[in-house]
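Worked example 2:
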Amino acid sequence: MPTNPFPTRYSDTVGEANLTIDLMFLRYDSIELNQHSIHPDWWLTSDHAPLSITIPITNKFITTLKLSIQQNSEHENAFIKEVISVFQNLDTLNISNKECLENMVNILNSLINQAWNKNAKQLRITRYSKQWWNNECNRAINKYRASRSLESWKKFRRVVKDTKRTFFNTKI
């Protein structure tokens, strides 16, 4: 329901009634996001009154760091080997009840987390972060920056194009 019930469309034909035909889809179960206002004094030359809503914005911490292991890297191989070793050395003979199973799962979780933290590196997420970017792209851009030659630039663009194609083909 609007905070002020006014028509939203004003007829320019004599004898035709003003109507409420404009829609605004809001969140039904939210007090803050379910109150909109109709502004009949703002309609000027249009035949519709503008609708508005105030959206509260709260301070929220957005994580800009994450742990990641680059695909097809030495760190990924080391992580996989450690996880395989954890599973191979897992003693499942003592699992006789629910508590033992939960304990075993917690141990497994802890060991995998340790392997992850050991092999992952911290990355800063920016608006320029790209999942497809790899070491080959880094080498090509650094070579271009060092030489500033047209040939290096073309090679860099080709590397980026091939890298993107490979990355997105695997995603598809």
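The chain has a mean pLDDT of 83. The helical segments are 74-88, 98-119, 135-147, 150-171.
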